[in-house]
C-alpha cells in the first residue's frame, strides 16, 4: 500500500514562522497553488493512468495497451491472449502461424493463407481477450503474404518463372494496406486492428518482438521475467537464428524496463508530495533498472560460438525486407517506437526532436496504444522531475539524476552501448547483404559508410537527449571516452592503508569519499580518476620555465582546456572557473613524454636543444620521463634568448603553456568494496599498485637507476617516504563510475565462480566476494580464488581471506613466484597450511588444480559445472592464467590442445569467461621494419591457419589469438581483417580506451608503411589513394564473403567448434535443411546478380578512367592504345558462361521455392555444386586481392625510384598507370575465367544422388517435356562452350570514355540505383526507407549497402572528374591513335634511372642476367616500364604488330629506353629483368601475349609460353590450380598458331603433343574424338577435360581439407596438370645438356633452350 498523507501535511508542512509571516506583505503566497491541491487530492497523473489501466485492462483484453505496476508495458501473462485466440474460431490463424517457417521454406505459405476460410474479427467471433494475439497473428500473416507476393517465392536469380496468383477474393476494397491480400485474412485484420485502436492495419515492432513471445518459466522473475534465456518466440516467420535472437533481444530490452513505469510514477508522486528521501529511493531504483537494460545486448551476439544468441549479420536481408510496411501511409515498424525510450525521453524532458531519429520517434509515439500515450503524456506534462531535482539543490538527488542521464543516454549507458552494438552488426550486415537500414544510412550525400552514417545519426539523437543538461555538445560521444568527460563527480582521498606486510606499500588500499555524490556502484564496476601531478613534478616544470611566482596567474586557454574548465564548472555546479598556471601543471599531462610533447618542445626551442634531439631519437615511445625532466635537461643546453622567447613570460597570458601541456586523461581502477545494505555508498575502496619505472638514461645519466612512480598510481599511492601525502590540498579529484559489460557476477547465486588474480588483480574480486557472501545461503555456488603473488609479504587481504576460508565460504589457492614458504588450502581443516615448496607461477597452480578448473570451464551441456571464470591482472598474468587453464583442460578432459581450445572458446562465447586486464600500455619500439599495405592485406586469416592482422593509427597488430576472446564478438574483428580500421576504432571509442590500448601493445607487429612521398605529385598521390581504396574493397569483399562462404563450406574453425551445419536438419532428420540451401541460393544469387558489383562496378570504372586519362594525357595530345578493361568485364558478365552459371543457380532457387519441383532429386548435386562454386568464389576473390596487392607494391617501387632521383613525375605517373591498367585487365580476365569455370559446374549429377536412377529418370523426363533433351545430351558430354580470348582487347581513350559515360548515364537514369536521386534525408521517413528495402528484387537490393555506397561515391567522382577535365578530355579524345611503341618512345628520353630501388616483388630475379647489356641491375621503374610495355604491346593483335616493329631496333646491346623493342635477338639484361619482373608480378599467363618478331618458331614459342604459364609456384598471380592456366594456354596457342600460319592438322598435332600427360591420359577415355583437322573442337575438348580434372581435384582437395594455405594455394598438387617447362621437349631435346641453373633460368624467363633468346 502506498503511503497517503493529508493534503495539509503535504502542502502546508513548511508553513513559515509567525516572525516570517509578520514581514510578509502578500499573505496569499502562503496558500498552496490550486493545481497542486488538485493534484495531491487526485494523485499523481502517471499513477492514475496506471491504476485505470490495471482496473479495466483484464476486462477489456488490454485493448488500450498493457500497463501495470508489476509488469510495466509488458503483458502480465504472455500466454493469455494466444490461449484465448486458440479457444476461438481465430485458432486457424494461430495454427497457420505455428506452421509458418515450414510453409515459407516450402514456398507454400501463400497457398496456405489463401486456403483459409474467412473468419471475421468481430466481437462475437473473436473475444476481447484474444484481440492482441489476433492482431499479431494476422499482422504476421499479411506481411509474409505481401513479402512472398513481391518476391514470388524467389529471392535470387530466376529464369522467368510464372507468377503464382490464387483464385480467391482479395481485401482490395478495405484499404490501401490490404490490396492484394486474400480477404480471408485481410477482413479480420482490418476488423481487429480497428478494435485495438489502429486507424489502418499495420504491424508494429512490439507486435513482432515483445508480444510475440512465450515465457518458459513465469515464476522465474529475477530480476525480470522477460529475460532472453526465459523466452522463446511464439511465431517465428522464417525460423532463422537472426530473427529469433534479434526479436528476443528486442523483447528483453523492453522487458528489462518492466519496473520502470512504476518507478517513474513513484518519482512523480514524490515530487508532488515534495518527498526528497522517497524521490531519492525511486531515482536510485530507476537508475538500477536503466543500468540493467544494456544487458539485453549480450543476447544478440555476432560470435558464431554463442549458440542461440548468434546473429549472423548476413541473415538480416530477408528479415529486413519482411518488416517493410504494408503501405506508404503506415507507421514504420521500428525500435524507435519502444515505449521505454519514449517514456524516458518524456521523463528527462527532452526538448529537441530535430534529428531524423528524433522526428521518427515522435511520429511513432502518436501510434502507440492509448494507455501508453496517456502515461507518457502524464509524465511529460506534469511535475518535471529534473526541474524539482535542480531546485532542491540536494547533491545526492543531482548526483543520482546525473547517473540516470548517463545510464540512459550517456556514452557508456544504454544509448551509447546500443550505438556501438548497432555499429558492429550493421558493419557486418552492410558488407554482406543488407541494403538499407533505419536512418537513411545510405544517404547519397554522405561520405560516411552506411554504418558510420547510422552511427552519426545515433550520435545526433544522443546529443539531443543530453542537451537539456549539457547544452550544445560539439564533439561526438565516442570522443568523450577516455577523457575527463567520464569523471562527472568530485571526491577526495580519505585514507591509504597497508593491505599486506610490504613496508614499501607497493600495493595500498585507497579509500575515497563518496559522501553527497549520489554515486552508486555494483561489484565489478570501475572508478575513473583524473590524477593530479605530484608537487615534485610541478616544481621541476615551474623551476625550468620560471613559473614559480606565477602559479596563481590566470591563463588564456585553448579549446580543449576551455572544455575542461566548463566541465569543472558543471561538476561543481558553478560557472566555468578561471584556470591558473597551477591548474595546468596539476591537471595537465606531464609524464610520460609522448612524441607530440617532445616535438612541441623541439619546435618551441627552434630545434636548438641537443637533449630534445636525443629524446626524439629514442627507439621507443613514450619516453620514460616527464616534461619536467626534459625541460630541466634542455634548459642547460639551450641559448637563453631562445629559451626566453619560447617560454615568454613578458606578455602575461601564458597561452603557450596551455598549448604545450594537454589535459591529462583519467586512469581506471577496479572498485574493491561492496555493501548491499547502503542505499548510497559513502566510500569507495581501491586497491592501488604503484606503477614504478626507471627513468630513461638521458635524464638519469648512463648507468644510474632512478625509480619513478606512474602519474595515477603515484598520486593515489605515493612512495611512503616522498612526503607527497603530507601536503594539504583542496583540489577536487574528479571521478566517475563505469560498468564493464563483460565483467559482472552471474545473476544466479547458485552459479559457481572462480577468480584468477595476479597481484593487485585481486582488486575487483574483493567487491565480488563481499557481494556474494552478503547473500549466502545453503544453495550458494562455490567461490574459488587462485591468487599469484611474489612473496608472502605481498599476499594482500590475507586476514580477510583467512576469515572466509575458516568460515568455509571460500577456497583459496596460492602461488608465490619468489618465495618457498608456500601456503596450501586444506578443505577439511578450513585453513591455509604452511608448506615448503619451490616458487611457482599461477599457471603451475592452475595445472595442479586441473580437475576443479576444467570442471568449472566446461559448460553444463559438456557435463561440466558451467562455472563463471574471472581473470584479473596484467597482461602477463592473463597469459599465464590462460596457459594454465588450457593445460588443465588438456590434462583433465580433452584429447588434444585443439579440443581444449574449443572448450575454452565456448566458455568465452557463453560469456562465462570474463577478463579485466588492467595494465598500462607498454612503450612500443619504433625501429622495426615497416609493413606495406599489401602485406597487411594478405593477412586476412580467412583460411584456417592464417594470421589475421589489422592496422590502427599507423601500427599493425596480429589479432589472431585475441579473436575468440573479443567481447564484441569474433566477426567484427574478422570483418576488419587486412585493412586499416582506425576509423572503426575511433567510432567504437577503442582509441582512448586504456584496456584496448594495453591489449594492443601485446599484439603489436610493427608500424604500417606510410603513404609514400611522391615529391608533390598530386597525380600519383590521388592514384595511390584510389588504388588503396580499391585494394581495401578487394580485401573487404573477400573477408565479408568469408562469413557466408565458410559457413556454407563448414570449414570455419569457429563453426566447427560450435558444430553449426547449415545443411543438415537440427532434429536429426536425414533430409537436407532447406535453410542451408536458401542461404547458399541467396549468397550465390547476390554474387551473380550484382556481378561482384563492388569489384567490377563503378569503382573499377573510376580507376580505368583516371588511369587511362593519365596515360593518354602523358602522350601530350596523341592517343594511346589501352587495354580494354571495361570491355572485358562487360563481355564476361554477358557471356554464355555467365548465363549458364545463372541458369544453374536458378535451379537451386527452384528447389528453395518449390520443393515439389523435379529439382528435389538433386539434393546431393546441390550440395556438391554449392561446395565447388563457393570455393571458386573465394579463390576468385583471393586472386583479385592478390592482383590489387601487386598494384599497391608498384607505388612503393615508383616512390623508391623517385627518391633515387629517377625520371620526371609525369613519366612516373604514366608508367605506373600503364602498369596498373595491365593489372586491371588481368583482373577483368579473371572474371571471365571465373564464369567459365562456374558454368562448368552442374547441379544435376545423378551419380551422386541416393537414388541415381530416379534422379536420372526425372531429369530425362523433364528435359523431354521441355524439349531440351537432345541439347542436354550434348551438354552432358561436353559441358558449356569454351571461352575464347577476344582479339579486340585493346582500345583507345575514346572507347574508355564512351563506356564510362554510358555507365554514368544508365546509372543516373535508373530510379533506384545508385541513389543519386535518393530522397532527401531531411524529409524522408522511416516508412519510405523501409519500403525501399522491402521492394521486390532490384539491382540495388542485390547490392550490399557497402558496395552501393562505394559505387555511388565512384559515380560521383567520375562525374566530377569528367567535369573538371572537360577541356583536356576533349583534346585527348579527338586525336588519332598512337601505338604503344610510340607512347614508349615518348617516355624514352626521360626515363633513365640512376639508382636501383628494389621493388618488393622483383628481388629474386634481379641479378641473373649475363650476356647482354652489362651488369647494371634494372631499377624498379625500368622493370615496371618494361612490364607495362610488354603487356600492352602484347595486347595488340599480333598481325598488326608485325608491321609496326622497326627493324633497326634489332640487336642493340643497350637500349637507352626500356621501351625499345625487347624482342630482338640481342635482348638486353634490363629487358630480361623486365620480363622476369613482369613474370614475378604475375603477368605470366594472362596479361602478356607472345611477342611478335617474325619468323616465329612455333615450337619454341609454345615452349616459352608454357614456361610462362607455369609460374604458379613463383607467382601468386596465376590462378590457383594449374589447370586454371589451361584456358589461357589454349588462347595463347591459338594466337601463336594463327601467327605461324600453321595448317589445321599441324595445329592439332602440335596441340596434342604439347598437352600434359594427365590430359593425354584422360583423352584415352574419350571415344567421340573430333576430326584430325578440327582444331576448334580439339581445343574445346581439351578445355573441358582440363576443367573437369581440375574440378575433381579441387573437390578432392576440399574433401581432404588439403587446401589450408590462406592465400589459397597450398603446395602443388602432384596430380595437377604439368604443362611444366621441365617436361617440355624442344625439337632437339634442347636443355638436356645444360647446367641445371642455366636451364632453370631459361625456363623461368621463357628463353629458348637452344639459343637462349626469347624467340629464336
Ligand atoms: C580496466 C582497468 C582496471 C584497472 N584496475 C586497476 C586496479 O584495480 N589497481 C591498479 O593498481 N591498477 C589498475 N589498473 C591500471 C591503472 O589504470 C593504471 O594503468 C596504472 O595505475 C598505471 O597508471 P599510472 O598513471 O600510474 O602510470 P603512467 O603514468 O600512465 O605510466 C606508467 C608506465 O606506462 C607507460 N605509459 C604510460 N602511458 C603510455 C602510453 N600511452 N603508451 C605507452 N606507454 C605508456 C609509461 O612509460 C610508464 O612506464 C587498471 C587498468 C585498467 C585498464
From TrEMBL:
Annotated ranges, domain Cytochrome b5 heme-binding: 928-1009
Cofactors that this protein relies on: FAD
A UniProt-annotated Pfam family: FAD_binding_1
UniProt superkingdom: Eukaryota
Name this polypeptide is given: NADPH--hemoprotein reductase
Record organism: Humicola insolens (Soft-rot fungus)
Record-stated family: Belongs to the indoleamine 2,3-dioxygenase family.
Keywords recorded for this protein, A-Z: FAD, Flavoprotein, Heme, Iron, Metal-binding, Oxidoreductase
Region (Disordered): 1387-1416
Enzyme Commission identifier(s): 1.6.2.4
Organism lineage string: Eukaryota, Fungi, Dikarya, Ascomycota, Pezizomycotina
Xref: InterPro entries: CysJ-like_FAD-binding, Cyt_B5-like_heme/steroid-bd, Cyt_B5-like_heme/steroid_sf, Cyt_B5_heme-BS, Flavoprot_Pyr_Nucl_cyt_Rdtase, FNR_nucleotide-bd, Indolamine_dOase, NADPH_Cyt_P450_Rdtase_alpha
Catalytic class of the enzyme: oxidoreductase
Cross-referenced SMART domains: Cyt-b5 (SM01117)
Listed SUPFAM superfamilies: Cytochrome b5-like heme/steroid binding domain (SSF55856), Ferredoxin reductase-like, C-terminal NADP-linked domain (SSF52343), Indolic compounds 2,3-dioxygenase-like (SSF140959), Riboflavin synthase domain-like (SSF63380)
Residues passing through the membrane, by range: none
